[in-house]
TrEMBL record:
Pathway: Amino-acid biosynthesis; L-methionine biosynthesis via de novo pathway; L-homoserine from L-aspartate: step 1/3; Amino-acid biosynthesis; L-lysine biosynthesis via DAP pathway; (S)-tetrahydrodipicolinate from L-aspartate: step 1/4; Amino-acid biosynthesis; L-threonine biosynthesis; L-threonine from L-aspartate: step 1/5. Belongs to the aspartokinase family. Keywords: Amino-acid biosynthesis, ATP-binding, Kinase, Nucleotide-binding, Transferase. InterPro entries: AceGlu_kinase-like_sf, ACT-like_dom_sf, ACT_Aspartokinase, Asp/Glu/Uridylate_kinase, Asp_kin_monofn, Asp_kinase, Aspartate_kinase_CS. SUPFAM superfamilies: ACT-like, Carbamate kinase-like. The keyword Glycosyltransferase does not apply. It catalyses: L-aspartate + ATP = 4-phospho-L-aspartate + ADP. It is an enzyme of class 2 (transferase). One of its GO terms (molecular function) is aspartate kinase activity. This is Aspartokinase. The keyword Amino-acid biosynthesis applies. It comes from Chryseolinea lacunae. Its EC number is 2.7.2.4.
């Protein structure tokens, strides 16, 4: 069985949803189709939820009405027959009655999560009815039947597998199973979600849970590129990546993949293929456990980084100093991206400032604290590149005109990470593109 995931832009227009149906039909064998909400829907639902939390019901109703009109127009174009247009209109009406009921009640965080789930629920029903109109055999299997997260918001892969396998086996005479990305139930059995980009994560969890032959992530770009095509003019798609390389790139800014996507697939060695809905003949990128060593594969940039520098003359003389520093971040559930040390200082980077004030206050007991925001991490990736001669020389030759603040090398054999002020990001990406890949 193959898992195929289609994102918001892939289902964002009626003609694209029809194209997805062709892609699904053209994929041999049994498949589970994971769909995101129509493009723009989740952002609008977030806006509606924010208005309701602030008590701005008139603004919320205006957003709801505009979104409903969009879906009414969508169904008119999606369905050809009068009978299925009527089904589509009834479907849209039913969803928006529920959304208005949520808005009319005591709107809280639980209601907010239920509201955000509606985008995926409606997109999958629209697609299922499109297949029905075309007399294509398919089943709609709600993700809320099997997808769950624990008290730490982590997916429960083994439990997901225990629930999903029997459901899939009961549909063994059906070639197309449709389900929702992003949404799940939490440890209180309430509707919840896997956060932004979670449809990729859903596809990987589903693929790992059923031990799929392959997980296909369909987007509007032909695979992972060697650099950010929004910033660098000449980039090239990468044909093959290892799980480790793809994980590094996704975590450090490659937008094509949700950072957590690779973890479940890697655990059960299920290949992940990145494909382009606009050009299904393009090779895309295949991510597996195998790879080629010793060459630069790609670079990725991650913005919104904050540097915390702790200066203490007694640092290295104090037993357990770093452990106590790390405990501060652990207590505030804030992860660290980079770390460098000297004899009298340690510098750390974080990408979540929610607990920054509290972290600063606790760290002051260790020494003098300096904080710099608006930094960028650039990650240079390739399998076992740090074991090759001259790697750092090539990187710093390319970055000769860029002031680099921190360097991390050796924590992984697959990447070299550099930190700089955000103002230098675009230049650095272009300089690396020329210096490492000969592209300009």
């Amino acid at each position: 069985m193959v898992v195929l995931k289609f994102g918001g832009t892939s289902v964002g227009k009626p003609e694209r949803m029809k194209k997805i149906a062709e892609l699904v039909l053209g994929t041999p064998g049994k498949k589970i189709v994971v769909l995101s909400a129509l493009s723009g829907t989740t952002n609008t639902l977030v806006a509606i939820g924010d208005h309701l939390l602030l008590g701005q019901k008139a603004k919320a109703e205006e957003e709801i009405a505009n979104l409903e009109k969009h879906y009414q127009a969508f169904t008119k174009e999606l369905y050809a027959s009068d009978s299925f247009q009527a089904i589509g209109q009834e479907l849209v009406s039913r969803f928006f009655i529920f959304i208005r009921l949520l808005a009319a009640g005591q709107f809280d965080n639980k209601s907010y999560r239920e509201l955000l789930a509606q985008g995926e629920l409606i997109s999958t029903e629209l697609f299922y009815q499109h297949l029905q109109e075309r007399k294509i055999s398919a089943r709609l299997l709600p993700a809320l039947y099997f997808m769950s997260i624990d008290e730490n918001d982590e997916p429960e892969l083994e439990k997901i597998s225990e629930r999903l396998k029997p459901l899939v086996n009961s549909l063994n005479n059906i070639d197309i199973i449709i389900t929702q990305g992003y949404i799940c139930r939490n440890n209180r059995n309430e509707i919840d979600n896997l956060k932004r980009g979670g449809s990729d994560y859903t596809a990987s969890l589903v693929g790992a849970a059923i031990r799929a032959e392959e997980i296909q992530i369909w987007t509007d770009i032909d695979g992972m590129h060697n650099n950010d095509p929004r910033i660098v003019k000449k980039t090239v798609p990468i044909s093959e990546l290892t799980f480790d390389e793809a994980s590094e790139l996704a975590y450090f800014g490659a937008k094509i993949l949700h950072p957590s996507t690779i973890v479940p697939a890697q655990k059960y060695n299920v290949p992940v293929r990145l494909k382009n809905t606009m050009d299904e003949k393009a090779a895309g990128t295949i991510i597996t456990s195998k790879g080629t060593e010793g060459s630069f594969k790609a670079v990725a940039a991650k913005d919104g980084i904050t540097v915390i520098n702790i200066r203490s003359s007694r640092m290295l003389m104090a037993y357990g100093f770093l452990r106590r520093v790390f405990e501060v971040f652990e207590n505030h559930k804030t992860s660290i991206d980079m770390i460098t040390t000297s004899e009298v200082a340690v510098s750390l980077t974080i990408d979540n400032n929610t607990q920054l004030a509290s972290i600063e206050n606790e760290l002051r007991k260790f020494g003098t604290i300096e904080v710099d925001k608006d930094q960028t991490i650039i990650c240079i990736v390739g399998q076992k590149i740090t074991e090759q001669k001259g790697v750092l020389n090539k990187i710093f030759e390319a970055l000769a005109d860029v002031p680099v603040r921190m360097v991390s090398c050796g924590g992984s054999t697959n990447n070299v990470t550099v930190l700089m002020d955000k103002q230098y990001k675009n230049k650095a990406l272009n300089d690396l593109n020329e210096g490492l890949f000969g592209l300009k």
